[in-house]
Amino acid sequence: MIPVQFYLVISTLLFFIGVFGFISRKNLIGLLMSIELILNAVNINFVAFNRYLFPNQIEGYIYSLFIIVVAAAETAVAIAIIMNVYRRMGNETVKSIKELKN
Amino acid sequence: MDYSQFLLMKPEISLALTLIVLLIADLFMGEKSKQYFQPLALVLFAAHTAINFCDCCGGSCMAGQSEAFSGMYITSNIHVFVKNMLNVGTLLVFLFSFEWNKKENKEHIAEFYLLMMATLFGMYLMISCGDFLLFYIGLETASIPMATLVALNKKRNESAEAAAKYILTAGFSSSVMLFGISLIYGSCGGSLYFCDVVKNFTAEPFQILAMIFFMAGVAFKISLVPFHLWTADTYQGAPTSVTAYLSVMSKGAAAFAFMVIMWKAFSNIDVKSTFVSWTNILWWIIVITITVGNIFAIRQKNLKRFLAFSSISQAGYIMLGLMSGTAEGMGSMVYYILVYLFTNLGAFGIISNIEDKSGKVGMDDYNGLYETNPKMAVVMMLAMFSLAGIPPFAGFWSKFFIFASAAQAGEYLLVFLALANTIISLYYYLLVVKAMFINKSDTPIATFKSDKMSLIGITVCTVGFLFLGFISQIYEQIIAWSFGI
Amino acid sequence: MEITSIAPWILLLPFLMFIFLGLTAHKFSGQTSAKIGTTAFGIVAILCYYVAGRYFFGNFSVLDANGFEVFNKTGEIYNQITVFNWTWMQMTENLTIHIGFYLDPISAMMLVVIATVSLMVHIYSYGYMFEHGHFDEGMSRYYAVLSLFSFAMLGLVLATNIFQMYIFWELVGVSSFLLIGYYFFKPAAVSACKKAFIVTRFADMFFLIGILILSYHTQTFDFDQLNADNAKHVLDSFSITDGSRGITFLGFPLITIATFCIFLGGAGKSAMFPFHIWLPDAMEGPTPSSALIHAATMVVAGVFLVARLFPVYSFAAPEVLNAICYIGAFTALFAAIIAVAQTDIKRVLAFSTISQIAYMMVALGVARFGNHESELGFTASMMHLFTHAMFKAMLFLCCGCIIHCVESNEMSKMGGLKKYMPITYWCFLIGCLAIAGIPIFSGFYSKGEILTACLENGYTAIYVVMTLTAGLTAFYMFRLFFHIFHYEENPEYATSHHKPHDQGWQMTLPLIVFAVLTVGFVFLPGFNNAITATRTYMEMPTNWTVEGISIAVALLGIAIAFFLYYKKNEKPANIMAKCPALCEFVYNRMKIDEIWYGITRSFIFGVICKSIAWFDHNCIDGFMNLCAWITQKVSLETKDAQSGNVQQYVWVFIMGVVTIAFLALY
Amino acid sequence: MSSYEIFVIVFIMALVMVLGGSVIGLLLSPKSKNNQKGEQYESGIPTRGTSWMQFKVGYYLIAILFLMFDVEAVLLFPWAVIMKGMGVEGLYAVSFFLVVLILGLAYAWRKGALEWK
């Protein structure tokens, strides 16, 4: 059987890929996708922990379901806001939201 | 299933009912009856506030804390009190935004109220949570509608930009927090109930790592440095009443929840190093937060931005209440939030009032305000004094109590640094006073008559921050309620 | 009338006046507000006199907390009476904050001082501000703040506990801030009011720390409990015994730290070195308010604070009293030297105020409980507080008249004013004689007692310094006096179409009242009957040697001033040129001149004064400015951190997490 | 929990990769302020117009709504698994959930979000 650490490795990599993506992408949608990567890392964690460490519970699965739902809600709102940004600024790169500063 | 446990959730249920009634009302109100929506919402929400307030004060006091849904939901007097505080604050924000809604926000009046209440509902859950999952859901329920509220002013670029920044950073921070929670889940025995987590929390490096991830996510909400960068931009871009809401309610609720979780889930009494580990971290965060907030506040020219940084440093002061972990600590923190609520909302009430009438929010625009609108200027000055903690205003007392509680925990150096910082803060709060009273302006803001709703709100706030300090019963009652939590 | 029914009005009336005048600022004309304010304060003053009079000479009783009757006097001893004491805040079971009304000899005396000076200033300001013409509109504001100040000051001296005192202490600071910045169109006034506020706030921080330490250990704020039975409660709480200094912190006894911190708060208000920097700048405010706040009442709050806690200091922390007397002596000399070199008449008075307050501090510092000799300093200090309040207020008000005529603060614009303003002339002369310590005038008695106290208690070095300062005081005050009223008449006066003249009755009446008080001080009932450390009659030792020396020194100072400044002359300049020949030719006289010239003019003026002024200006002011500058700079430099780039925000976020994790784990 | 050591190692490695990557990028990348840098296809054919406008806004609106309601159906899944065990109480709870959901849908409908304009 694949040991639980392997899942942890995957989820950690995924987490940091998400962070890296958030920092380096130009497109706001890209940023949003990076957040989703991080959330997926979290979900992997939950499911893997549940399966390997506490096999007679189902809490971990339920958590990941909730996370998926909430993340979807968040994404929906974020996309709506990004569309608004696009309409107002004419593009949807991170550069377009740099007016408020100092 | 025991249905009587729903009775414990009275505040949530009455808020949810208000929300649903308003939603349905909005659905079926015709074009003509639209104008009645706003009064209806105000009245309903006021009723909700009043009912809960009476319930809180009217003797239905619980002894100790009660749990519902096998520990998922926790409530006690102090929880209910904090919820009532938030109710009052939200009502004040509604009062301030009445005129703005009528004029600038005609098309989205219903959304404004519904989303506000939805956020409030999220905060309720956050406060009463007994489990990380409920906390997360509460947090997101509070923050997602918040983002739409920030973006409510669709015609302004700033609003859109602020909302985008808010939702992206909030999403990021909550996912980082979730990563922490998932690690806690794995390392603390496969349960996310606070009572289970704390049993297995032994401050191993892995657990501390998880805890830090979690703390970062909450600290983002309270806007502690270095997780504060979104604050100023969002505050500046958002509609003023939303900014007021963000700066007080969102912060207060998150701070309270933060406190409860840190002491419930991460402080294993048997293992002393558990709370040593996070109080040390918090120590540094508090010092940096207060200082950075102060330093950035000094050169702000936009009042909303200015108050954003001031609220960052105030958040640092609020966190002082966490250090002691006693009933006094919790009581002084709740008291601080209460005073801060009135003071900051008073300041924002005036800013939003002036913005409605003249469209100006720059500090230079306030030059000579005393000449044209003396009452506004005086109230603003008093609010600034209270924020700076000059006796005998309530702000002084709240600072005093929270310092005392931290000193009780032996954090003398921290209290000293915080005290030293109040001197810097005095400087920039006086800048506003100076602008209004001393600077002359060729084009001062014209004399105006404010609408009744804002006047009521501002009066309530003024009375609040002037006299809260003198009514010692409130503080004593809060302390009494905080025992045993 | 019952004291208990009158007492609340002493505090309430000024406060209600503040609110009333503040709210109606735009409804009434300035004159109306002034009349209302003055009338109201007149009533307050009458109440104050009544209460103080009943306390000192009458006989009455009030019920204390336990329901016992307490009389103002048992036998010869005056009791400390808590007229009323409302519970304000219950901190813990034992620790309660009250707000109340506390009568004992020193607070009763302060009632008289505040009532007199404040009433006079109310009257005087009517003339001063009104004739200033263009300021009619701000007058309501001015009178409102005056009322606020009177309220705060009365609350401060009547405080039953140290916390109430602290609150009124801050309120006094706020009203002082508002008054200094009254001429808000003058940048100097604005920066001065900010400076005053921030410097005193800085000192107040120590005060608060001191209060917290003290009350944390004693579990009380009440003066009654702190001072009772030779401060026994304090000694017990800090477990101080004959052999040990009790609880320590960082190697210092905690009681020393606490009491010293409290003293630092007092030093800030009373402008002791190095917190004195705000007072000269505070002269930017209207002159009447300077007379009230920065000469007579607020600045002595620090002295009052130490006197109020005197048993605690004397029994629990005598080393702090030592420190106080050395700091005081240094400040006295330092300020006197600087005063010599000033040309702005209000600044001369400001430095002289610093110096005189330092006298009071020194007197307190040398005093101890014990016998009549050792307790003398306390009475001397309180006496000097009283006399100084009267004559310094008068001097300031005279300055106000002069500035009003000449429309300048500079000495060089004045001279020969004697024939134009006789009343002011005589009043100013009386003030100068009093401050110089010439017999018959009030200052002589109080200053003499202070010097005696220094000598009798073995502080010989301090005695010498203080005597020297007395001489310097006489010199610079008469330098000022001669410069203003004699010297050379400014030719502009004769040609000017409104010649300098004595002002209207509102402005001369207060001068005359103060002059009468200063001359008639000797006829007042002796301070040693009541205002003593033990609150009972005390023998006042008179050391004629000390008195003689102090008179001689004062006369010497006056003589030098007379010689140099009575008439316009070239002496100061000429002596320089003729110096060698003249010195040899008329040895005796020239030697004095030479020493005077060589040491005083070139050395003291050129080297010491300048360097001290430089130190004052560059180091102490500079330090404060540096702090402000650094904060500003840091603020500007860090703005890149808030770049508006959302990705950078997240970068900082994640770096924050990593750093914290790193720090927490290793 | 020594078995987590590998996790810590990978954690640090990942950290180094991310931080290192961005730092190296910061150091090595030539700084050019050219406008073309910001374009989607840097040395390709300049994009004409915007690709966004090819879809109607209504498309996004409906897509977002679909996403919401679709995902919320996920919450029915755990209930479906243990439907029998929960009995009638579970049914009430889920009915309440569905009512709220339907209220949301009604709201969207009423506000005209579903109309294809």
Multimerization status? heterotetramer
Order of helices and strands of chain A: HHH
Question: Which structural class matches the secondary elements of chain A?
Answer: mainly alpha
Number of helices of chain B: 19
Radius of gyration of chain B: 21 Å
Low-confidence regions of chain B:
none
Which structural class do you get from the secondary structure elements of chain B?
Answer: mainly alpha
* CATH architecture descriptor of chain A: Orthogonal Bundle
The total beta strand count of chain A reads 0
What is the total domain count of chain B? 1
DSSP strand count of chain B: 2
Strands of the widest sheet of chain B, in order across it, are 1-2
* Helix residue percentage of chain B: over 70%
* Strand fraction of chain B: under 5%
H and E string of chain B: HHEEHHHHHHHHHHHHHHHHH
| Global outline of chain A | elongated
Low-confidence stretches of chain A: none
The description of the largest β-sheet of chain A is: none
Note the gap between the termini of chain B. Answer: 26 Å
Report on this model:
- The complex is a heterotetramer of chains A (102), B (485), C (666) and D (117).
- Chain A has 102 residues and is an all-alpha fold.
- Chain A has a single domain (4-96), classed as Orthogonal Bundle (Helix Hairpins), CATH 1.10.287.
- Chain A is built from 3 helices and no strands.
- Chain A has helices at residues 4-24, 28-52, 59-89.
- Chain A is elongated, with a radius of gyration of 17 Å.
- Chain B has 485 residues and is mainly α.
- In chain B, strands 1-2 form a two-stranded antiparallel sheet.
- Chain C is mainly alpha-helical and 666 residues long.
- Chain C has helices spanning 3-23, 30-57, 105-131, 139-157, 162-180, 187-218, 223-237, 254-269, 278-281, 287-296, 301-308, 310-316, 318-340, 345-366, 372-406, 422-436, 442-456, 460-485, 492-495, 505-519, 544-565, 571-585, 587-637, 646-665; strands spanning 61-63, 69-71, 73-74, 77-78, 81-90, 96-103, 248-249, 252-253.
- In chain C, strand 3 (73-74) and strand 4 form a beta hairpin.
- In chain C, helix 2 runs antiparallel to helix 3 (105-131).
- The radius of gyration of chain C is 26 Å and the shape is globular.
- The termini of chain D are far apart.
- Chain D is mostly helical.
- Chain D has helices spanning 5-28, 57-72, 76-81, 83-110.
- Chain D contains 4 helices and no strands.
- The longest helix of chain D has 28 residues, at 83-110.
- Chain D is 63% helix and 0% strand.
- Chains in contact: A-B, A-C, A-D, B-C, B-D.
- At the B-C interface, helix 6, helix 8, helix 9, helix 11 and helix 15 of B face strand 5, helix 5, helix 6, helix 23 and helix 24 of C.
